[in-house]
Amino acid sequence: MSTRIAFLKGHGTENDFVIVPDPENVIALPPAAVAALCDRRAGIGGDGLLHVVRSAAHPEAKDMAAEAEWFMDYRNGDGSVAEMCGNGVRVFARYLQHAGLVPEGDISVATRAGVKSAHIAKDGDVTVGMGRARLPEGEVTVSVGERSWPARNVNMGNPHAVAFVEDLAHAGDLSSPPPFSPASAYPDGVNVEFVVDRGPGHVALRVHERGSGETRSCGTGACAVAVAAARRDGADPVVTGTPATYTVDVPGGRLVITERPDGEIEMTGPAVIVATGEIDPEWLESSAR
Ligand SMILES: N[C@@H](CCC[C@H](N)C(=O)O)C(=O)O
Fold first, then answer.
1. Which whole number is the average pLDDT over 254-265?
2. How far apart, in whole angstroms, are the C-alpha atoms of residue 113 and residue 118?
3. 5-125+272-287: in CATH 3.40.30.10
4. How would CATH label the architecture of 140-269?
5. Residue 123 confidence class, pLDDT cut points 50, 70, 90
6. Which residue has a Cα nearest atom 4 of ligand 1?
7. Does 76 count as an annotated binding residue?
8. Which of 76, 83, 227, 268 is the pocket-test mutation for ligand 1 (most atoms within 8 Å of CB)?
9. Are strands 15-21 and 48-54 parallel, antiparallel or unpaired?
10. Which residues form the active site (predicted)?
């Protein structure tokens, strides 16, 4: 009889993940298997999957092993690979603490977008050092039905288009990717955030995530939104020397994002482990065919 495979389920502001601990990187997780695990009817269900691997055991993370013992091999719900997941890093850190693999306090996590630092509070929030935003030049437009909006191109390790709208309902059905132009702005697809103001330093978003559809939160998206809002509001902490903090409401909760005078972005929010279980390896193998 083959060995059963452990999994956990977790979420951060209701961006939910199947967590598969696999320290030595021996579990086969081709895109079809990931999509089957993330399927909400025929699988466990999740917006994405966190494959937990020792950095030294993963070809994409070996070079980061000296700085970070654990690698977040992140996959979208459709099985595609993404560079980074902000809510995922918080949940990943919470899992490591929950499993006794790291102490409370400060840890490092290797990702495809580099090593991220995380501060874990036992029963509270997790704060992640998300690195700096890149703001590629050029005008971008996103559309939903008959409506179009200018969008800010913000790269948080993964690509985002941030559009300020009058009403979040105008974003309509976000299950399919909103069209954007020019196509050259995002050769690998994009996560699209629609944003409204809620008050000074306070915004709310809806998001279409590349590879997952509309989700109830996106951590990198919230960071991209905070940076786009700051620039729109005339604030650039690197220039002014004053940090810019935005509260970002997402359908699944609230994140607080601060851009510091050195350009580094910090994201704080919840990270919850909700269940543990076992995957039937025969089902997993057949789902990959
Ligand atoms: N939910 C994530 C982002 C996950 C990756 C994204 N869908 C992509 O393809 O870039 C977050 O919290 O940042």
1. 98
2. 14
3. no
4. Roll (3.10)
5. low
6. 85
7. yes
8. 76
9. parallel
10. 85, 218
